[in-house]
Write a structure and sequence with these properties.
The chain has 15 helices and 12 strands. It has 2 domains: about 110 residues, Rhodanese-like domain (Oxidized Rhodanese, domain 1, 3-Layer(aba) Sandwich); about 210 residues, Rossmann fold, CATH 3.40.50. Strand 2, helix 1 and strand 3 form a beta-alpha-beta unit. Helix 10 packs across helix 14. With about 350 residues, it is an alpha/beta fold.
Length: about 350
């Protein structure tokens, strides 16, 4: 076991040594981002944290600390009673707050006084965040990416999932970002994570890869919905060799009608999302597409979107940003689940 540098204090490098990671920050801070696997154990609620902050600024630090001590002690007692009374003496928790200061310090002190070998994370969440940012600047260059390209509707995301099922290493950026990557890529029942949480998810994925094996990733732009890819990852992807999925427009339309079936069940929501193309397409074109939605003619709509919007946009983007011209082509006329798996097997065998 690694020796602790200071009694009761641990570093980011020692996270794996602990039985549990307790996040002492407020629920709102935890929701924005947290260390993977951490348990939310707020010593101040969102409202209490705001109240203490206001008191600190408008009255005095002393008054804020007095009230803070009362609230923190009360909340720590409730947390221990609700969650930790059954823990054995050998239990070793790690506690962190924003900077590794008062909130985690108070929690750690009480846990240690009980008899548990609790430690406070040096630098708190801010120290963890610096670690994630630093590693995201370093990790991509150590990996061998294979970039899956192909026009919209080529089932690239489903292909990545099939490759993963076959044992390949896959970085599924759209899954991590909870977004399908295009102007119509928003998912109706899922909100995107914060930028910080997205980067934490990226870090976790990249740290888990074997650098001796290729990593398959989709050819993405710098942004996926509201989220931005780290510069080092973009650079590594754009320098990597590509492979191109080639399917005719009718086959891709068939796939999109299946993969985006939630659009078809919510035509009003689809019409609202389609309005985001205003400025990219003429008013006349958009009016025609809206009329197709109202008529329920989704097949014609999808083929028109591919022809007039997605295919020209994708062609310009890929030729500009990726090693696209000399990419080996994997042609298919079957983007059913079985066809996608066969395509994945071909790619794995190439």
């Amino acid at each position: 076991m690694t020796m602790m540098k200071t009694k009761g204090v641990a570093t980011v490098a020692q996270l794996a040594e602990f039985d549990a990671i307790l996040d002492a920050r407020s629920p709102a801070e935890f929701a924005e981002d947290h260390i993977p696997g951490a348990i939310s154990c707020p010593v101040l609620s969102n409202e209490e944290r705001a109240r203490i902050g206001t008191l600190y600024k408008q009255v005095s630090p002393f008054e804020a600390k007095k009230l803070g001590a009362v609230l923190v002690a009360r909340n720590i007692a409730a947390l221990i009673e609700a969650h930790f009374l059954a823990k054995p003496k050998s239990w070793r928790p790690l506690v962190y707050c924003w900077r590794g200061g008062q909130r985690s310090g108070a929690f750690t002190h009480i846990l240690r006084e009980i008899g548990w070998d609790a430690h406070r994370l040096e630098g708190g969440y801010k120290g963890w965040r610096r670690h994630v940012v630093a590693r995201l600047a370093e990790l991509p260059a150590t990996l061998s990416f294979r970039v899956v390209s192909g026009p919209t509707g080529s089932a690239k995301s489903r292909l990545l999932e099939a490759l993963a099922e076959l044992g390949a290493q896959v970085l599924h950026l759209e899954a991590l970002a909870a977004h399908k990557g295009s102007v119509l890529g928003v998912l109706p029942e899922a909100s995107q994570p914060s930028q910080k949480m997205f980067e934490t998810r990226l870090w976790s994925a990249l740290e888990g890869f074997d650098a001796a094996r290729p990593v398959f990733v989709e050819a993405e732009s710098r942004r996926i919905g509201k989220l931005q890819l780290p510069d080092a990852l973009v650079a590594a992807m754009r320098a990597a060799p590509c492979l191109k999925i080639e399917a005719c427009r009718a086959t891709r339309a068939d796939f999109l009608l299946r993969d985006y079936d939630y659009f078809l069940a919510r035509p009003d929501w689809l019409a609202e999302q389609l309005d985001r193309l205003r400025g990219l397409q003429s008013n006349e074109t958009l009016a025609h597409w809206q009329a197709l939605i109202q008529a329920g003619d989704f097949r014609t709509l999808v083929e028109a979107l591919l022809e007039k919007h997605y295919d020209p946009l994708y062609q310009r983007s890929q030729e500009k940003n990726y090693r696209y011209a000399d990419a080996p082509v994997f042609a298919t006329d079957d983007l059913s689940p079985a066809g996608i798996r066969q395509l994945a097997e071909r790619i794995r065998a190439a």
